[in-house]
Amino acid sequence: MYCHFYSSPLGRIRLLANDDGLTGLTLPTQRVDDTVQDDWQVTAEPFIECCRQLDAYFAGTLTEFTVPLAPKGTAFQQQVWKALCSVPYGETCSYKAIAEAINNPKAVRAVGAANGKNPIAIIVPCHRVIGSNGQLTGYAGGVESKAFLLKLEGALASS
């Protein structure tokens, strides 16, 4: 397992990867500390392209990430996370829309739970899911971070 810390406009982001791809992108408010596990190798090498893409995203010049992803989760969570990746940059959708996209329209609450367990924030764009009433709903990185990301993408008017 590889670990790297990336400085972003949201604060210090922790990146995790294995040999298959990125396994985690954790926002500053998502964790208690920056503890590095004994079996993690702290290095920038596997994250060079990811950091380049994050730089471009935060600069407003990248709208689609292409880094290899390797999130760990249940088959249902994987299905939801894949559907999240189909929500276009600059757009939002509801939990219901994601449930319908995975052909499980009654699983709205389960979709919300899977969305909340997304281990790769920003790149797997769970911030693009909002309440069916158009309101920003909970976000593991904080509603302020969600608003920042949606404004950056032009999906939320700047105030």
UniProtKB/TrEMBL annotation:
It holds the Pfam family Methyltransf_1N. It comes from the Bacteria. It is an enzyme of class 2 (transferase). Residues 75-155 form the Methylated-DNA-[protein]-cysteine S-methyltransferase DNA binding domain. Its EC number is 2.1.1.63. The active site is at residue 126. GO terms for molecular function: methylated-DNA-[protein]-cysteine S-methyltransferase activity. One of its GO terms (biological process) is methylation. It is found in: Cytoplasm. It catalyses: a 4-O-methyl-thymidine in DNA + L-cysteinyl-[protein] = a thymidine in DNA + S-methyl-L-cysteinyl-[protein]; a 6-O-methyl-2'-deoxyguanosine in DNA + L-cysteinyl-[protein] = S-methyl-L-cysteinyl-[protein] + a 2'-deoxyguanosine in DNA. The keyword Cytoplasm applies. Residues 1-71 form the Methylguanine DNA methyltransferase ribonuclease-like domain. The keyword DNA damage applies. One of its GO terms (cellular component) is cytoplasm. InterPro entries: MethylDNA_cys_MeTrfase_AS (IPR001497), MethylDNA_cys_MeTrfase_DNA-bd (IPR014048), MethylDNA_cys_MeTrfase_DNAb (IPR036217), MethylG_MeTrfase_N (IPR008332), MGMT (IPR023546), MGMT_N_sf (IPR036631), WH-like_DNA-bd_sf (IPR036388). Keywords: Cytoplasm, DNA damage, DNA repair, Methyltransferase, Transferase. Belongs to the MGMT family. Involved in the cellular defense against the biological effects of O6-methylguanine (O6-MeG) and O4-methylthymine (O4-MeT) in DNA. Repairs the methylated nucleobase in DNA by stoichiometrically transferring the methyl group to a cysteine residue in the enzyme. This is a suicide reaction: the enzyme is irreversibly inactivated. This enzyme catalyzes only one turnover and therefore is not strictly catalytic. According to one definition, an enzyme is a biocatalyst that acts repeatedly and over many reaction cycles. PANTHER family: METHYLATED-DNA--PROTEIN-CYSTEINE METHYLTRANSFERASE. This is Methylated-DNA--protein-cysteine methyltransferase. It comes from Photobacterium jeanii. The lineage of its organism: Bacteria, Pseudomonadati, Pseudomonadota, Gammaproteobacteria, Vibrionales.
